[in-house]
Each structure stands twice: as C-alpha cells, then as structure tokens.
Amino acid sequence: MSSPAVTNPARPASNTLFASRRFWQLVALIVIALLPMVLTDSYWQTNLIICAINVLLAIGLDFVLGYAGQLNLGQSAFYGIGAYASTLLITQLGVPFWAAFACGVVISGTAGMLLSLFAVRLRGHYLAIASLGFAVITYQILLNWISLTQGPLGIYGISPPPSMSIPGLGKIDFSNLTNLFYLVAGFAFLVYLLFDQLVRSPVGETLTAIREDEVSASSLGVNGTKWKVFAFAMSSAVAGAAGCFYAPFVGTLVPDAFMITESFTILAMVIVGGMGSLVGPVFGAILLTILPELLRGVGDLRLIVYGVAVTLVVMFMPGGMVQAGKMLAMKLRGEKNVARKEPVQ
Amino acid sequence: MTGALQPAAEAAERPVSPAAGKPLLVATGLQKSFGGVQAVRDISLSVPEGTVFAVIGPNGAGKSTMLNLMSGHYQPDAGTLHFDGIAMVGVPAHVRVRHGIARTFQKIRLFKQLSALENVLAAFHTRHAIPAWQYVFHAGAFRRDVERCRTEAVELLSFVGLKHRIHVTAGALSYGEQRMLEIARALATAPRLLMIDEPAAGLNNAEVDALLERIVELRMRHITIILVEHNMDLVMKVADRILVMDYGQYLFEGTPAEVQSHPGVIAAYLGDESP
Fold first, then answer.
1. Which one of A160, A170, A343, B209 has the fewest beta carbons within 10 angstroms of its own beta carbon?
2. Of A2, A197, A205, which is closest to B122 when you measure between CB atoms?
3. What is the pTM assigned to this prediction?
4. B186, A219: Cβ pair inside 8 Å?
5. C-alpha distances in angstroms, B257 versus B11, B19, B217, B237?
6. Does B135 contact A198 at a Cβ distance shorter than 8 Å?
C-alpha cells in the first residue's frame, strides 16, 4: 500500500480504524449485502440495480475524467455498445452469456481505444465535442441500422444471466432481483477495488501528471498518448460492462436508453460526487439515481434538478460531496480553517 | 551589465579543460522556423560529458528554442542531434527522458495542485521496478518500489533545500522554491544530461547563490548540465564553456574568459558603438 501520509499528510494519527480504507470497504460490502434484505419490494430492488449500474458508469468516467483529466462525453455510446454487442451475440449467434459479456466489454473498450487514438491530440472542449459526436453517431446507428438492432422497435425478451451453481449456496437464479443486485453490485465493487488499487499505484501519479500538465509530464518520460488511450479504454470497457448488465436486467433494448443525455447524467454524477476521488462518484451515482425517483411526481422537472445540482456544486463546492464530507468531518472534530481554500493559480 | 561581465574569480581559477570528457550531446546545423521567423539558424554545438555548458544571448536569441530542440519538445527543420552517439532527431521528448535527458522549463510547469513530494514522485515514471500484476495487487516488489521512490524523492527535495516543504502544494511555494522543485523533479528521472532553462530568473541573490552551489554539486556528481541563462554572474561562475547566440545565430563559443573579452559578445549585449 502506498503510505497514507503521502496522499493525505494532514490526516491525524488517531481514528486509524475510521481512516482505514479496508474498514470502509468492508462496511460497503456489508451494506451491499444488507440492502436487498431491507428494501424488499421489487420497486426498490429495481432501483438498487440501477444504482449499481450507474455506479459502474460513474467510476468508469471518473477514471478518465477525474484522474487523466480527459472529458469523455461518449460514455452513453460505450454503454450502448456493450449492451447491444452482448445482446446481439446472445440472440443472433447463441453465444453463452458470460462469453458475450466478455466480448461486450472488449468491444466497448476497443471502441474507446479507437476513439481516443483519433481524439488524442484534442483536449478540453475539443475532446468533449469529438466524444459527444461519437455518442450522437452511435445513437443514430443503433436507431437506424434496423436489420441489426431492430431500431426504435427494440429487442425484446432478453433473458436474465443464466443461473449459477455455487458450492455451499446452491443454484443462484438471476431472474431474482436480489441475486441480480448482488451480481451487479459485486461486480461494481470489484471494479472499484481495481481502480482504487490502480490510482494508488504509480499509474495514478502518471494519470494525474497528464491531467495537471501534459507537456511537463512528457519531460518526465510520460507517453501522454499511451496513457490517455489506456484511461479511455478502461473507462469505456467499464461502461460496456454496465451495458452488458443493463440489457438482461431490463429485458428490452431500445436506442433511447443510450441517448446523449445519458452521458450528461453520468457526468453530473461524477461532478456532484466529486471528481478525482473514486468514492465521490459512487455517492454521486446513488444520489442522482434515487433523487429523481423520489421526485418522480414532478416529471421532466427532474432534469432541472440535475442542472441545478451541478450548477450549485460547481459554483460552491467544486470538490462535490467528497469535499462537503471532508468539511463536515473537520467541523465535527472541531478543527479550524474549515473553509481553507486551495491556492488558486 | 558591465559588472556582470567582469571576470569572476572562481571562473579564472577553475581549471577549464574542454577536452575533459567525450562529447555527450552533439548538434550540427540545427534549424527551426516558426512561420517566417527563423528562431534557430544553423547552430552546432558539442557538450563534453561532465561539464556545465551555458547558452546565453539577448532576449529572443533562440536559446529556449534551442533547448526545446534538444529536449524533443520541438523537432528541428534541419540538422542532426546525437546523444551519446544515438541519433535523436524525430525521437519524442518522453523517449529522450529514458536515454537520460531531463529538463526544466523557463515558464515553470509544475503540477500545481500536487504537493512538492507528489511532483517528484511522478517523475519516477520511467524508473519503477514493479511487475505489471502488482499494480493491481500491491505486493512486496510494489511496496519496496514505493518506499525506494519515496526515500529518494525526499533526498532530492533535501538536496534542493525543500525538505521542510515536502507536503506543501506546489502552487503555494515561493517562486524560488518552485524553481528548485522543478530541478528536483527533473533529477528524479536520473538524467545524465540536465538542461535548465533560465533557473535564476526571478530569484533573489541568496537564492541564486544556493542555485549556483547546487549546480556545482551536480557537476561533481558527473551530471552534465546545459544552462540557458540570462544571469551573467551565475553563468560566468559555473560554466565551463559558453555558447553565445544572437538572432537565432551562432555568435561565439568559448570559455567564460574568452566570452567576456570577445568584442562581438559585448556588442550584442551592450549595443554596438560603431555607426
């Protein structure tokens, strides 16, 4: 493990249990295990699964945006590519679910890699526009390549992942929402651990260096192109995995699920949660999945909720929920300089 | 300026032997234009290993362009460049680092949001000894590598006088400290050739003295140094050889003493008196 003193020198030596990542990861696992037992009706279990899928999408975007500093607005496309690729492999070619899942992840990751190879010279607004263009094109293809995707008619009757026999637990049937939640949330948890390990290794230092100043990073031997392509590929592969879970969960695929607004929703989750930390986007994804459900009565006004939430966060709390949480924790400990600002350069 | 051009005692006393080491960096006929402006015209140089080689000249003489050509941040329009016998034209900057070429920037380019320590740690990029799988499963080799980099980073920060500032955000450091941090960061790549772009700009006298001491120390550690600099005092005190550029062209090359007595150099700096 990298020494915690490196990443957070201000962290007090006391409270080591609450400062330990492993402790909180264990808490997260327990929460995942308990949630479907507490929320037993199918409405809330459905929402839990959507939360888990959105968490995957958000941490995937955060890896490329929060760490490597590349604004990727194509996340909805990679999500869609994963969903359609795996579903078509299953329904058209009879590929087994998990093989199709692996293919979906690889195809999305490859699509991300190709997009970033073309867009790698672009940065900031230009990259955002290029990836947005990719999302629009992908949506149009899903909509208009009717012989393959059945266009707006959609693909119906997608079966849930095949049941699995686990020694000691017996046969696990994924048409059961609780089990499906455990599958998706468990996968999201593993992806979180993977990213967490990566960003705490020199890979995290390298990606952050690119985010901060690519020319400077190149003077330290960092191949900016290679690492940006890597971050893009990881990000889109994870979005593809989310898509592979989405299709059998909903049972129906229509292109409208992968409109570009989905990219902005995922972006909002990352920003509201806090870019550049992995835990932030997890909470951002949960909040922005549950909040609109609670606001279902107001209909499309929920889009305004997104807009207002993002605007308020960017204006007053650029570090998102993570920053708010840190400030709250400091206040509870009675520390001063709660509102200490980072020096602006 | 006249004061700065007076012979410095140290420069006069120090034995200067241009043939001390074999040439580490050799450039011939380098050219670079931006639009219609010829920033570097037909510059050749040969930097012996283990020496301090300075490039001086008035503003706009093409010194920084020259440095960018040598670091790979620009590629030349014509000419050749060899580092330790290896052709470098067309080799991108990040690859040259692996050959042992490091640099700092005239306009400071630190990772401003990161701490001084994190800035230096990022510079170990090419020097990690971690098996790929340990990036995900942090085992023994990973821990040893992290520990080694951290220890070495702290040593480098102590070397430039920033040991007490390691956890300070780079953007919050004073200007002089930022300059020294850039040098520490470049050194973390374990260079054989360190190119420093105007390190003394904006530094007070005490800071310039500290910088000079560090450069002398690096030279003793057999790191070859190319110094692009305006501060004549500093250059005269540390340089073994000096290349003088003006309007992108070669003006003169020689020892500090020769440079100080060369009429063309004095004219370029102080203005020509002849009509």
1. A170
2. A205
3. 0.86
4. yes
5. 8, 17, 22, 10
6. yes
